[in-house]
């Protein structure tokens, strides 16, 4: 799995996982979110457009990232989940917690 990152402003980061977000890739996502928050970017958008599959480990990494961001006074949102990802989020009711947005820009209402 590859992760693209973008920093649209000093407090926001966009992380773009590409491929399958499973047990083998979740440690890298957790570390990336932690490093991002430690650098002062406490508002994180995880753009899931290129994430073709997510399992329970991937969901756990997103929830862990949410906790990391909130403890630093920020938030983590997700954007553009594909059909499989959206289905898993809805089945677990995590769509209510992670608040998926249709666009990266819309993830924080800006």
TrEMBL record:
Checking PROSITE patterns in the record gives: STAS
Gene3D superfamilies in the record, alphabetically? STAS domain (3.30.750.24)
A Pfam family this chain is assigned to: STAS
STAS domain location: 10-110
- What transmembrane ranges does the database entry give? none
CDD domains, A to Z: STAS_anti-anti-sigma_factors
Task: Spell out the coiled coil positions from the record.
Answer: none
Give the residue range of the signal peptide. none
Q: Which domain of life is it from?
A: Bacteria
Q: Which InterPro entries match?
A: Anti-sigma_ant, STAS_dom, STAS_dom_sf
- Identify its protein family: Belongs to the anti-sigma-factor antagonist family.
Report what the protein is called.
Anti-sigma factor antagonist
Please give the organism.
Pseudonocardia lutea
């Amino acid at each position: 799995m590859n992760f693209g990152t973008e920093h649209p402003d000093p407090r926001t980061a966009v992380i773009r996982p590409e491929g399958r977000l499973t047990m083998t890739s979740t440690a890298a996502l957790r570390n990336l979110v932690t490093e991002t928050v430690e650098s002062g970017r406490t508002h994180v958008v995880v753009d899931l457009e290129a994430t073709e599959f997510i399992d329970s480990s991937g969901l756990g990494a997103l929830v862990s990232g949410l906790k990391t961001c909130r403890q630093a006074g920020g938030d983590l949102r997700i954007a553009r989940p594909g059909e499989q990802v959206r289905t898993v989020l809805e089945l677990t009711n995590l769509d209510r917690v992670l608040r998926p947005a249709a666009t990266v820009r819309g993830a924080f209402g800006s």
